[in-house]
Amino acid sequence: MFNKKSIAVVLLLGLLVLTVVGCGQQGGDQNQGADQKQQEETAPKEVKEEDKFGGVFEGRVASDPPSLDPAHITDTTSHKVAMNIYDGLVEFDKDLKVVGAIAKSWDVSDDGLIWTFKLKKDVKFHNGDLVTAEDFVYSFTRMVNPETKSERAWLFNNIKGVEEFQNGKTDRVEGIKATDEYTLKITLKEPFTPFLSVLAMPNAAVVSKKAIEKYGVDYGNNPVGTGPFKFKEWQHDNKVVLEAHKDYFAGRPYLDKVVYRVIPEASPAFAEYEQGNIYTLVDGDIPMGQMQRVLTSEKFSDELVKIPFLGTYYFGINTNKEPFDNLKVRKALNYAVNKKAIAKVLKNGTVKPASGILPPGMPGYNEDIEGYPYDQEKAKKLLAEAGYPDGLPGEYELIYNTSKSHQAIAEAVQANLKEIGVNIKLSNLDWGSYIKRVDNGETQIFRLGWIADYPDPDNFLYVKFHSENAGPGGNAVFYNNPEFDKIAEKARGMKPGEERLKLYQKAEKMVVNDAPWIPIYYYTRVAVAKPFVQGYRLTAMGPLPLNTVWLNK
Protein backbone atom coordinates (compact mmCIF):
# COMPACT_ATOMS: atom_id res chain seq x y z
CA MET A 1 0.00 0.00 0.00
CA PHE A 2 1.03 3.62 -0.38
CA ASN A 3 0.50 6.58 1.87
CA LYS A 4 -1.36 8.98 -0.41
CA LYS A 5 0.21 11.95 1.36
CA SER A 6 3.79 10.74 1.05
CA ILE A 7 4.85 10.57 -2.57
CA ALA A 8 3.61 11.47 -6.01
CA VAL A 9 4.23 8.38 -8.09
CA VAL A 10 3.65 8.60 -11.82
CA LEU A 11 3.22 5.19 -13.35
CA LEU A 12 3.23 3.91 -16.87
CA LEU A 13 -0.45 4.60 -17.40
CA GLY A 14 0.14 8.14 -18.59
CA LEU A 15 2.89 6.97 -20.91
CA LEU A 16 0.66 4.31 -22.40
CA VAL A 17 -2.00 6.90 -23.16
CA LEU A 18 0.61 8.99 -24.94
CA THR A 19 1.86 6.12 -27.04
CA VAL A 20 -1.63 5.06 -28.05
CA VAL A 21 -2.42 8.57 -29.22
CA GLY A 22 0.98 9.43 -30.67
CA CYS A 23 2.13 6.14 -32.13
CA GLY A 24 -0.98 4.08 -32.71
CA GLN A 25 0.30 1.01 -30.89
CA GLN A 26 2.00 0.07 -27.66
CA GLY A 27 3.02 -2.92 -25.61
CA GLY A 28 2.65 -3.56 -21.92
CA ASP A 29 3.78 -5.98 -19.23
CA GLN A 30 0.66 -7.85 -18.26
CA ASN A 31 2.37 -9.55 -15.33
CA GLN A 32 2.83 -6.28 -13.48
CA GLY A 33 -0.71 -4.95 -13.63
CA ALA A 34 -1.43 -5.64 -9.98
CA ASP A 35 1.51 -3.53 -8.92
CA GLN A 36 0.63 -0.49 -10.98
CA LYS A 37 -1.16 2.23 -9.07
CA GLN A 38 -1.47 5.82 -10.11
CA GLN A 39 -1.48 8.67 -7.64
CA GLU A 40 -1.80 12.38 -8.14
CA GLU A 41 0.55 14.70 -6.33
CA THR A 42 -1.24 15.56 -3.10
CA ALA A 43 -0.60 17.62 -0.02
CA PRO A 44 -2.60 18.16 3.15
CA LYS A 45 -4.99 21.06 2.55
CA GLU A 46 -4.36 22.46 6.01
CA VAL A 47 -0.68 23.12 5.23
CA LYS A 48 -0.13 26.68 4.07
CA GLU A 49 2.11 27.40 1.10
CA GLU A 50 4.61 29.35 3.20
CA ASP A 51 4.93 26.42 5.61
CA LYS A 52 6.28 24.19 2.86
CA PHE A 53 9.49 26.16 2.43
CA GLY A 54 12.76 25.15 4.01
CA GLY A 55 14.70 22.03 4.85
CA VAL A 56 17.39 19.89 3.28
CA PHE A 57 16.65 16.91 1.05
CA GLU A 58 19.12 14.11 1.77
CA GLY A 59 19.56 11.96 -1.33
CA ARG A 60 21.97 9.34 -2.58
CA VAL A 61 23.89 8.56 -5.75
CA ALA A 62 25.71 5.28 -6.22
CA SER A 63 28.86 6.87 -7.64
CA ASP A 64 30.55 10.18 -8.18
CA PRO A 65 28.93 11.77 -11.26
CA PRO A 66 31.43 11.62 -14.16
CA SER A 67 30.46 15.14 -15.27
CA LEU A 68 27.87 17.85 -14.65
CA ASP A 69 28.44 19.38 -18.08
CA PRO A 70 25.40 18.66 -20.32
CA ALA A 71 27.71 18.10 -23.29
CA HIS A 72 29.26 15.14 -21.49
CA ILE A 73 26.37 13.58 -19.58
CA THR A 74 25.82 9.99 -20.72
CA ASP A 75 24.72 8.29 -17.50
CA THR A 76 21.79 8.32 -15.08
CA THR A 77 23.94 9.29 -12.08
CA SER A 78 25.06 12.56 -13.64
CA HIS A 79 21.54 13.18 -14.95
CA LYS A 80 19.99 12.69 -11.53
CA VAL A 81 22.01 15.61 -10.17
CA ALA A 82 22.17 17.76 -13.30
CA MET A 83 18.43 17.82 -13.96
CA ASN A 84 18.11 20.00 -10.86
CA ILE A 85 20.76 22.44 -12.11
CA TYR A 86 19.71 22.88 -15.74
CA ASP A 87 16.72 23.55 -17.96
CA GLY A 88 16.22 23.19 -21.69
CA LEU A 89 13.61 24.40 -24.12
CA VAL A 90 11.24 21.64 -23.06
CA GLU A 91 10.99 18.91 -20.42
CA PHE A 92 9.02 15.79 -19.55
CA ASP A 93 6.13 16.17 -17.12
CA LYS A 94 4.92 13.54 -14.66
CA ASP A 95 3.06 11.74 -17.47
CA LEU A 96 6.15 11.80 -19.74
CA LYS A 97 4.50 14.33 -21.97
CA VAL A 98 6.79 16.98 -23.46
CA VAL A 99 5.91 20.40 -22.06
CA GLY A 100 7.54 23.79 -22.18
CA ALA A 101 10.40 24.67 -19.86
CA ILE A 102 12.26 27.79 -21.03
CA ALA A 103 10.20 27.70 -24.24
CA LYS A 104 6.73 29.12 -23.69
CA SER A 105 5.50 27.88 -27.08
CA TRP A 106 6.69 26.33 -30.33
CA ASP A 107 5.56 25.64 -33.89
CA VAL A 108 6.70 23.12 -36.47
CA SER A 109 6.34 23.48 -40.22
CA ASP A 110 4.08 21.15 -42.17
CA ASP A 111 7.08 19.26 -43.56
CA GLY A 112 8.47 18.70 -40.05
CA LEU A 113 11.73 20.51 -40.79
CA ILE A 114 11.49 23.96 -39.19
CA TRP A 115 10.95 24.24 -35.44
CA THR A 116 10.38 27.72 -33.99
CA PHE A 117 10.55 28.26 -30.22
CA LYS A 118 9.37 31.35 -28.35
CA LEU A 119 11.28 31.78 -25.08
CA LYS A 120 10.16 33.08 -21.72
CA LYS A 121 11.69 36.46 -20.94
CA ASP A 122 12.29 36.10 -17.20
CA VAL A 123 14.71 33.15 -17.12
CA LYS A 124 18.00 33.77 -15.35
CA PHE A 125 21.21 31.82 -15.13
CA HIS A 126 22.47 31.17 -11.62
CA ASN A 127 24.95 34.02 -12.13
CA GLY A 128 22.07 36.43 -12.70
CA ASP A 129 22.34 36.80 -16.49
CA LEU A 130 19.11 36.68 -18.48
CA VAL A 131 18.73 33.81 -20.95
CA THR A 132 18.16 34.72 -24.61
CA ALA A 133 17.87 32.77 -27.84
CA GLU A 134 21.58 33.38 -28.49
CA ASP A 135 22.39 31.32 -25.38
CA PHE A 136 20.69 28.33 -27.00
CA VAL A 137 22.54 28.98 -30.26
CA TYR A 138 25.78 28.92 -28.25
CA SER A 139 24.83 25.83 -26.23
CA PHE A 140 23.71 23.73 -29.21
CA THR A 141 26.65 24.83 -31.36
CA ARG A 142 29.00 23.93 -28.51
CA MET A 143 27.43 20.47 -28.36
CA VAL A 144 28.31 19.71 -32.00
CA ASN A 145 31.67 21.52 -31.99
CA PRO A 146 34.43 18.90 -32.44
CA GLU A 147 36.54 20.79 -29.91
CA THR A 148 33.96 20.04 -27.21
CA LYS A 149 34.28 16.29 -27.87
CA SER A 150 30.72 15.73 -26.70
CA GLU A 151 29.71 12.09 -26.45
CA ARG A 152 26.19 13.10 -27.42
CA ALA A 153 26.92 15.40 -30.38
CA TRP A 154 25.13 12.92 -32.62
CA LEU A 155 21.82 13.95 -31.06
CA PHE A 156 21.97 17.08 -33.23
CA ASN A 157 23.40 15.50 -36.38
CA ASN A 158 20.07 15.94 -38.12
CA ILE A 159 20.21 19.72 -37.81
CA LYS A 160 20.96 21.44 -41.10
CA GLY A 161 24.57 22.56 -41.43
CA VAL A 162 26.04 20.52 -38.57
CA GLU A 163 28.20 18.41 -40.87
CA GLU A 164 29.55 21.45 -42.71
CA PHE A 165 30.33 23.16 -39.39
CA GLN A 166 32.11 20.10 -38.03
CA ASN A 167 34.19 19.82 -41.22
CA GLY A 168 35.30 23.44 -40.92
CA LYS A 169 33.46 24.62 -44.02
CA THR A 170 31.46 27.21 -42.07
CA ASP A 171 31.93 29.04 -38.76
CA ARG A 172 28.34 28.52 -37.60
CA VAL A 173 25.56 25.94 -37.87
CA GLU A 174 23.11 27.08 -40.53
CA GLY A 175 20.13 25.35 -38.92
CA ILE A 176 20.45 27.02 -35.49
CA LYS A 177 19.42 30.69 -35.51
CA ALA A 178 18.16 33.36 -33.14
CA THR A 179 15.66 35.31 -35.24
CA ASP A 180 15.22 37.82 -32.42
CA GLU A 181 16.19 38.06 -28.76
CA TYR A 182 13.65 35.50 -27.61
CA THR A 183 12.95 33.41 -30.73
CA LEU A 184 14.99 30.36 -31.71
CA LYS A 185 14.63 28.62 -35.08
CA ILE A 186 16.00 25.11 -35.67
CA THR A 187 15.99 23.67 -39.19
CA LEU A 188 16.42 19.92 -39.73
CA LYS A 189 17.85 18.19 -42.79
CA GLU A 190 15.04 15.66 -42.74
CA PRO A 191 12.03 14.93 -40.51
CA PHE A 192 12.87 13.33 -37.18
CA THR A 193 9.81 12.15 -35.26
CA PRO A 194 11.27 12.19 -31.69
CA PHE A 195 13.09 15.53 -32.08
CA LEU A 196 11.03 17.33 -29.44
CA SER A 197 11.73 14.51 -26.96
CA VAL A 198 15.46 14.77 -27.71
CA LEU A 199 15.27 18.43 -26.71
CA ALA A 200 13.98 17.29 -23.30
CA MET A 201 17.19 15.35 -22.67
CA PRO A 202 19.80 16.80 -20.27
CA ASN A 203 22.26 17.22 -23.14
CA ALA A 204 20.00 19.89 -24.67
CA ALA A 205 20.14 22.14 -21.61
CA VAL A 206 21.18 25.77 -21.98
CA VAL A 207 24.61 26.61 -20.51
CA SER A 208 26.26 29.88 -19.59
CA LYS A 209 28.92 30.98 -22.08
CA LYS A 210 30.40 33.26 -19.43
CA ALA A 211 30.79 30.35 -16.98
CA ILE A 212 32.32 28.05 -19.60
CA GLU A 213 34.84 30.70 -20.59
CA LYS A 214 35.64 31.22 -16.90
CA TYR A 215 36.14 27.58 -15.93
CA GLY A 216 37.30 26.08 -19.22
CA VAL A 217 37.83 22.32 -19.10
CA ASP A 218 36.87 22.36 -15.42
CA TYR A 219 33.33 23.59 -16.16
CA GLY A 220 31.93 20.08 -15.55
CA ASN A 221 32.97 20.52 -11.90
CA ASN A 222 31.52 24.05 -11.67
CA PRO A 223 28.16 23.96 -13.49
CA VAL A 224 26.05 27.07 -14.00
CA GLY A 225 22.51 26.53 -15.23
CA THR A 226 19.05 28.02 -14.90
CA GLY A 227 17.43 25.21 -12.90
CA PRO A 228 15.63 25.19 -9.55
CA PHE A 229 18.87 24.54 -7.67
CA LYS A 230 22.31 26.13 -7.93
CA PHE A 231 25.54 24.21 -7.64
CA LYS A 232 27.12 24.87 -4.21
CA GLU A 233 29.79 22.27 -3.43
CA TRP A 234 31.26 19.01 -4.69
CA GLN A 235 33.40 16.85 -2.44
CA HIS A 236 34.35 14.18 -4.94
CA ASP A 237 33.40 10.64 -3.91
CA ASN A 238 31.61 12.11 -0.88
CA LYS A 239 28.75 14.48 -1.75
CA VAL A 240 27.31 17.06 -4.13
CA VAL A 241 25.48 19.99 -2.53
CA LEU A 242 22.90 22.19 -4.30
CA GLU A 243 21.03 25.20 -2.95
CA ALA A 244 17.75 26.82 -3.91
CA HIS A 245 17.73 29.16 -6.90
CA LYS A 246 15.51 31.86 -5.45
CA ASP A 247 15.06 33.58 -8.81
CA TYR A 248 13.91 30.41 -10.56
CA PHE A 249 11.48 31.37 -13.32
CA ALA A 250 8.94 28.74 -12.28
CA GLY A 251 9.06 29.89 -8.65
CA ARG A 252 11.70 29.12 -6.08
CA PRO A 253 11.76 25.48 -4.93
CA TYR A 254 10.46 24.65 -1.48
CA LEU A 255 13.73 23.06 -0.34
CA ASP A 256 16.65 25.18 0.81
CA LYS A 257 19.23 22.58 -0.13
CA VAL A 258 19.70 19.21 -1.77
CA VAL A 259 22.56 16.95 -0.71
CA TYR A 260 23.43 13.90 -2.81
CA ARG A 261 25.73 11.63 -0.84
CA VAL A 262 27.93 9.22 -2.76
CA ILE A 263 27.33 5.76 -1.28
CA PRO A 264 28.47 3.06 -3.74
CA GLU A 265 27.16 -0.03 -1.97
CA ALA A 266 23.48 -0.80 -1.46
CA SER A 267 23.78 -2.20 2.07
CA PRO A 268 25.20 0.92 3.73
CA ALA A 269 22.83 3.07 1.64
CA PHE A 270 19.87 1.05 2.89
CA ALA A 271 21.11 1.31 6.47
CA GLU A 272 21.33 5.08 6.07
CA TYR A 273 17.79 5.11 4.73
CA GLU A 274 16.45 3.10 7.66
CA GLN A 275 18.19 5.48 10.05
CA GLY A 276 16.54 8.43 8.30
CA ASN A 277 19.81 9.90 7.03
CA ILE A 278 18.74 9.69 3.38
CA TYR A 279 15.14 10.05 2.25
CA THR A 280 14.71 8.01 -0.92
CA LEU A 281 16.21 4.93 -2.56
CA VAL A 282 15.26 4.78 -6.24
CA ASP A 283 18.28 3.42 -8.11
CA GLY A 284 18.02 -0.28 -7.43
CA ASP A 285 19.72 0.25 -4.09
CA ILE A 286 17.68 -2.12 -1.95
CA PRO A 287 20.08 -4.97 -1.06
CA MET A 288 19.14 -8.43 -2.25
CA GLY A 289 19.03 -9.71 1.31
CA GLN A 290 16.53 -7.02 2.28
CA MET A 291 14.21 -7.13 -0.72
CA GLN A 292 11.69 -9.61 0.66
CA ARG A 293 11.45 -7.66 3.91
CA VAL A 294 10.83 -4.44 1.99
CA LEU A 295 8.19 -6.10 -0.19
CA THR A 296 6.29 -7.79 2.63
CA SER A 297 6.92 -5.92 5.88
CA GLU A 298 4.28 -3.59 7.27
CA LYS A 299 7.13 -1.26 8.22
CA PHE A 300 7.57 -0.27 4.57
CA SER A 301 3.92 -0.35 3.52
CA ASP A 302 3.68 3.47 3.41
CA GLU A 303 7.11 3.86 1.79
CA LEU A 304 7.20 1.21 -0.95
CA VAL A 305 6.95 2.19 -4.59
CA LYS A 306 6.93 -0.49 -7.29
CA ILE A 307 6.52 0.66 -10.87
CA PRO A 308 7.47 -0.48 -14.38
CA PHE A 309 10.55 1.19 -15.77
CA LEU A 310 11.55 1.80 -19.40
CA GLY A 311 14.85 0.01 -19.28
CA THR A 312 16.68 -3.22 -20.13
CA TYR A 313 19.52 -4.76 -18.11
CA TYR A 314 22.01 -6.55 -20.34
CA PHE A 315 25.53 -7.75 -20.94
CA GLY A 316 27.14 -6.31 -24.02
CA ILE A 317 29.46 -8.34 -26.24
CA ASN A 318 32.14 -6.38 -28.07
CA THR A 319 31.63 -7.60 -31.64
CA ASN A 320 35.05 -6.26 -32.66
CA LYS A 321 36.92 -8.64 -30.36
CA GLU A 322 37.77 -12.23 -31.26
CA PRO A 323 36.17 -14.72 -30.84
CA PHE A 324 33.07 -12.58 -30.23
CA ASP A 325 33.09 -11.37 -33.81
CA ASN A 326 31.70 -14.85 -34.56
CA LEU A 327 27.88 -14.85 -34.60
CA LYS A 328 27.60 -18.45 -33.41
CA VAL A 329 29.79 -17.69 -30.40
CA ARG A 330 27.58 -14.75 -29.43
CA LYS A 331 24.45 -16.86 -29.81
CA ALA A 332 26.02 -19.59 -27.68
CA LEU A 333 26.66 -17.10 -24.88
CA ASN A 334 23.02 -15.99 -25.06
CA TYR A 335 21.65 -19.54 -24.82
CA ALA A 336 24.01 -20.33 -21.93
CA VAL A 337 22.68 -17.66 -19.54
CA ASN A 338 19.71 -18.55 -17.35
CA LYS A 339 17.79 -15.26 -17.36
CA LYS A 340 14.74 -16.70 -15.60
CA ALA A 341 16.83 -17.88 -12.64
CA ILE A 342 18.50 -14.48 -12.34
CA ALA A 343 15.12 -12.73 -12.37
CA LYS A 344 13.54 -15.13 -9.89
CA VAL A 345 16.38 -15.68 -7.43
CA LEU A 346 18.71 -12.69 -7.62
CA LYS A 347 15.98 -10.11 -8.29
CA ASN A 348 13.37 -11.73 -6.05
CA GLY A 349 10.92 -12.10 -8.91
CA THR A 350 10.48 -8.33 -9.14
CA VAL A 351 11.61 -8.14 -12.78
CA LYS A 352 10.66 -9.81 -16.05
CA PRO A 353 13.29 -11.89 -17.90
CA ALA A 354 14.24 -10.19 -21.15
CA SER A 355 14.02 -11.76 -24.58
CA GLY A 356 14.58 -8.66 -26.69
CA ILE A 357 15.82 -5.08 -26.63
CA LEU A 358 12.69 -2.92 -26.20
CA PRO A 359 11.12 -3.09 -22.71
CA PRO A 360 7.39 -3.47 -21.99
CA GLY A 361 5.61 -0.14 -22.24
CA MET A 362 7.89 1.14 -24.99
CA PRO A 363 6.06 1.77 -28.27
CA GLY A 364 6.87 -1.15 -30.55
CA TYR A 365 7.50 -3.62 -27.72
CA ASN A 366 7.13 -7.11 -29.18
CA GLU A 367 6.10 -9.74 -26.64
CA ASP A 368 6.44 -12.46 -29.29
CA ILE A 369 10.23 -12.20 -29.61
CA GLU A 370 11.52 -15.55 -28.36
CA GLY A 371 15.11 -14.47 -27.87
CA TYR A 372 17.42 -17.12 -26.43
CA PRO A 373 15.82 -19.42 -23.85
CA TYR A 374 18.21 -21.15 -21.45
CA ASP A 375 19.61 -24.13 -23.38
CA GLN A 376 23.11 -25.29 -22.50
CA GLU A 377 23.17 -28.09 -25.04
CA LYS A 378 22.26 -25.74 -27.87
CA ALA A 379 24.97 -23.37 -26.66
CA LYS A 380 27.61 -26.13 -26.76
CA LYS A 381 26.47 -27.18 -30.22
CA LEU A 382 26.82 -23.63 -31.51
CA LEU A 383 30.34 -23.37 -30.06
CA ALA A 384 31.25 -26.62 -31.79
CA GLU A 385 29.88 -25.32 -35.09
CA ALA A 386 31.97 -22.18 -34.59
CA GLY A 387 35.08 -24.34 -34.31
CA TYR A 388 35.26 -24.67 -30.52
CA PRO A 389 34.05 -28.19 -29.64
CA ASP A 390 35.84 -28.05 -26.28
CA GLY A 391 34.76 -24.52 -25.43
CA LEU A 392 36.62 -21.25 -25.99
CA PRO A 393 40.36 -21.31 -25.34
CA GLY A 394 41.84 -19.00 -22.71
CA GLU A 395 40.10 -16.60 -20.37
CA TYR A 396 37.86 -13.63 -21.13
CA GLU A 397 37.12 -10.52 -19.12
CA LEU A 398 33.67 -9.45 -18.02
CA ILE A 399 33.63 -6.02 -16.40
CA TYR A 400 30.96 -4.46 -14.20
CA ASN A 401 30.70 -1.35 -12.06
CA THR A 402 30.78 -1.45 -8.28
CA SER A 403 27.61 -2.98 -6.83
CA LYS A 404 26.87 -6.17 -4.91
CA SER A 405 23.81 -6.72 -7.10
CA HIS A 406 25.81 -6.36 -10.32
CA GLN A 407 28.47 -8.65 -8.86
CA ALA A 408 25.95 -11.36 -8.01
CA ILE A 409 24.48 -11.29 -11.53
CA ALA A 410 27.96 -11.24 -13.11
CA GLU A 411 28.90 -14.27 -11.00
CA ALA A 412 25.77 -16.09 -12.16
CA VAL A 413 26.67 -15.37 -15.79
CA GLN A 414 30.24 -16.46 -15.11
CA ALA A 415 29.01 -19.79 -13.70
CA ASN A 416 26.61 -20.34 -16.63
CA LEU A 417 29.34 -19.71 -19.19
CA LYS A 418 31.81 -21.98 -17.43
CA GLU A 419 29.37 -24.84 -17.93
CA ILE A 420 29.76 -24.53 -21.71
CA GLY A 421 33.53 -24.17 -21.57
CA VAL A 422 33.87 -20.37 -21.50
CA ASN A 423 36.13 -19.17 -18.69
CA ILE A 424 35.32 -15.67 -17.46
CA LYS A 425 37.40 -13.35 -15.30
CA LEU A 426 35.36 -10.71 -13.47
CA SER A 427 36.65 -7.16 -13.08
CA ASN A 428 34.98 -4.62 -10.79
CA LEU A 429 35.56 -0.92 -11.55
CA ASP A 430 34.29 2.41 -10.23
CA TRP A 431 31.74 4.02 -12.54
CA GLY A 432 34.00 6.70 -14.02
CA SER A 433 36.74 4.25 -14.98
CA TYR A 434 34.19 1.69 -16.07
CA ILE A 435 32.29 3.87 -18.50
CA LYS A 436 35.52 5.10 -20.09
CA ARG A 437 36.55 1.53 -20.88
CA VAL A 438 33.12 0.74 -22.27
CA ASP A 439 33.00 3.88 -24.44
CA ASN A 440 36.53 3.29 -25.73
CA GLY A 441 35.82 -0.32 -26.70
CA GLU A 442 38.38 -1.63 -24.19
CA THR A 443 36.13 -4.51 -23.22
CA GLN A 444 35.15 -8.03 -24.18
CA ILE A 445 31.93 -8.45 -22.19
CA PHE A 446 30.42 -5.73 -20.02
CA ARG A 447 27.35 -5.06 -17.87
CA LEU A 448 25.06 -2.15 -18.56
CA GLY A 449 21.45 -1.09 -18.28
CA TRP A 450 19.84 1.23 -20.77
CA ILE A 451 17.11 3.50 -19.41
CA ALA A 452 15.07 5.45 -21.95
CA ASP A 453 16.10 9.08 -22.50
CA TYR A 454 12.84 9.57 -24.34
CA PRO A 455 9.89 7.18 -24.80
CA ASP A 456 10.51 6.15 -28.39
CA PRO A 457 12.09 2.97 -29.85
CA ASP A 458 14.57 5.19 -31.69
CA ASN A 459 16.24 5.81 -28.33
CA PHE A 460 17.04 2.12 -27.95
CA LEU A 461 17.57 0.88 -31.49
CA TYR A 462 19.15 3.79 -33.35
CA VAL A 463 21.15 5.02 -30.35
CA LYS A 464 22.48 1.66 -29.20
CA PHE A 465 23.02 -0.10 -32.52
CA HIS A 466 23.48 2.29 -35.44
CA SER A 467 27.06 2.05 -36.70
CA GLU A 468 27.64 5.82 -36.59
CA ASN A 469 27.14 5.71 -32.80
CA ALA A 470 29.93 3.17 -32.23
CA GLY A 471 31.76 3.78 -28.96
CA PRO A 472 30.83 6.86 -26.87
CA GLY A 473 27.76 7.51 -29.04
CA GLY A 474 25.98 4.60 -27.36
CA ASN A 475 26.83 1.60 -29.55
CA ALA A 476 29.34 0.16 -27.10
CA VAL A 477 29.14 -3.30 -28.70
CA PHE A 478 30.32 -1.83 -32.03
CA TYR A 479 27.45 -3.46 -33.87
CA ASN A 480 27.65 -2.86 -37.62
CA ASN A 481 24.86 -4.01 -39.92
CA PRO A 482 24.22 -1.81 -43.00
CA GLU A 483 20.72 -3.25 -43.49
CA PHE A 484 19.82 -2.42 -39.90
CA ASP A 485 21.24 1.09 -40.33
CA LYS A 486 18.96 1.73 -43.31
CA ILE A 487 15.86 0.58 -41.43
CA ALA A 488 16.69 2.62 -38.33
CA GLU A 489 17.35 5.71 -40.42
CA LYS A 490 14.08 5.34 -42.29
CA ALA A 491 11.97 4.70 -39.17
CA ARG A 492 13.17 7.73 -37.23
CA GLY A 493 11.88 10.08 -39.93
CA MET A 494 8.48 8.43 -40.41
CA LYS A 495 5.24 9.83 -39.07
CA PRO A 496 3.94 8.21 -35.87
CA GLY A 497 1.83 5.15 -36.46
CA GLU A 498 1.68 1.39 -36.87
CA GLU A 499 3.91 1.23 -39.96
CA ARG A 500 6.73 3.00 -38.15
CA LEU A 501 6.49 0.65 -35.17
CA LYS A 502 6.45 -2.41 -37.44
CA LEU A 503 9.70 -1.21 -38.97
CA TYR A 504 11.25 -0.88 -35.52
CA GLN A 505 10.08 -4.38 -34.66
CA LYS A 506 11.81 -5.64 -37.80
CA ALA A 507 14.97 -3.82 -36.76
CA GLU A 508 14.79 -5.28 -33.26
CA LYS A 509 14.48 -8.85 -34.60
CA MET A 510 17.56 -8.20 -36.71
CA VAL A 511 19.59 -7.11 -33.69
CA VAL A 512 18.37 -10.01 -31.55
CA ASN A 513 19.34 -12.44 -34.30
CA ASP A 514 22.83 -10.90 -34.46
CA ALA A 515 23.16 -11.26 -30.67
CA PRO A 516 25.43 -8.34 -29.66
CA TRP A 517 23.60 -8.18 -26.32
CA ILE A 518 22.70 -10.78 -23.73
CA PRO A 519 19.43 -9.20 -22.49
CA ILE A 520 18.89 -10.24 -18.86
CA TYR A 521 15.74 -8.54 -17.61
CA TYR A 522 13.38 -5.62 -18.08
CA TYR A 523 13.53 -3.21 -15.19
CA THR A 524 10.91 -2.75 -12.54
CA ARG A 525 11.59 0.08 -10.14
CA VAL A 526 11.34 -1.02 -6.51
CA ALA A 527 11.90 2.13 -4.51
CA VAL A 528 11.24 3.51 -1.05
CA ALA A 529 10.63 7.07 0.11
CA LYS A 530 10.13 8.45 3.58
CA PRO A 531 6.48 9.33 4.30
CA PHE A 532 7.39 12.94 5.11
CA VAL A 533 8.73 13.51 1.57
CA GLN A 534 5.92 15.31 -0.24
CA GLY A 535 5.65 16.01 -3.96
CA TYR A 536 8.35 13.56 -5.05
CA ARG A 537 7.78 12.55 -8.67
CA LEU A 538 8.95 9.23 -10.04
CA THR A 539 8.16 8.22 -13.62
CA ALA A 540 8.79 5.22 -15.86
CA MET A 541 12.06 6.93 -16.88
CA GLY A 542 13.19 7.89 -13.38
CA PRO A 543 12.77 10.77 -10.95
CA LEU A 544 11.92 14.31 -12.01
CA PRO A 545 13.62 17.45 -10.62
CA LEU A 546 13.06 18.17 -6.93
CA ASN A 547 11.51 21.63 -7.30
CA THR A 548 8.09 20.31 -6.20
CA VAL A 549 9.40 18.44 -3.16
CA TRP A 550 8.77 19.66 0.40
CA LEU A 551 9.32 18.03 3.75
CA ASN A 552 6.41 17.49 6.12
CA LYS A 553 8.54 17.02 9.22
From TrEMBL:
Keywords: Signal, Transport. Residues 37-49 have a biased composition (Basic and acidic residues). One of its GO terms (molecular function) is peptide transmembrane transporter activity. It comes from the Bacteria. The keyword Transport applies. Residues 1-22 form the signal peptide. Gene3D superfamilies: Dipeptide-binding Protein, Domain 1, Dipeptide-binding Protein, Domain 3, Periplasmic binding protein-like II. GO terms for biological process: peptide transport. Residues 97-470 form the Solute-binding protein family domain. This is Oligopeptide transport system substrate-binding protein.
